[in-house]
Amino acid sequence: MIKGMKKQTRFIPAEQAYLSIFTWLEELQENKIQVDCVLYNCIMDVCIMYRDIEKALEVYEMMNKVDIEPNYVTFGILIKA
Q1: Does residue 53 lie within any of the structural domains?
Q2: Number of domains, the chain
Q3: Which partner from 18, 30, 59, 75 sits 20 to 30 angstroms from 49, CA to CA?
Q4: How far is it, in rounded angstroms, from Cα 76 to Cα 44?
Q5: CA angle, corner 26, sides to 17 and 21, nearest 5?
C-alpha cells in the first residue's frame, strides 16, 4: 500500500512550492482563516532561506496588518535577514 502511495506522490520543484506559499497565505486571509505568529514566522524564515528579504518584510507587514503580535522568534528571523 505504501509503495502504491509513493508512486502516486507528485513532487513539485522547490521554487514553485516557495511561490505557492504566498498564494496559500492570501487564500487563508481571504477566507478569514485565523493564522498565528508561528505560521508567519515559518514563512518569513523560508523567505530568508531564499534570500528574499523584501518578501520576508512583506510577510511581516501582513502579520502587523492582521494584528498578529510578533514575538522574539519573529525578531530573530528579521535580524538574521
Answers
A1: yes
A2: 1
A3: 30
A4: 11
A5: 15
DSSP notation for the chain: -HHHHHHH-----HHHHHHHHHHHHHHHHHTT----HHHHHHHHHHHHHTT-HHHHHHHHHHHHHTTPPP-HHHHHHHHH-
pLDDT digits (tens, 9 = 90+) for 23-80: 898 898 889 888 999 999 999 999 998 899 999 999 999 999 989 999 999 999 999 8
C-alpha R_g of the chain: 15
Domain hosting 48: range is 34-81
Tell me whether residue 40 is in a domain: yes
Please report whether residue 67 resides in a domain. Answer: yes
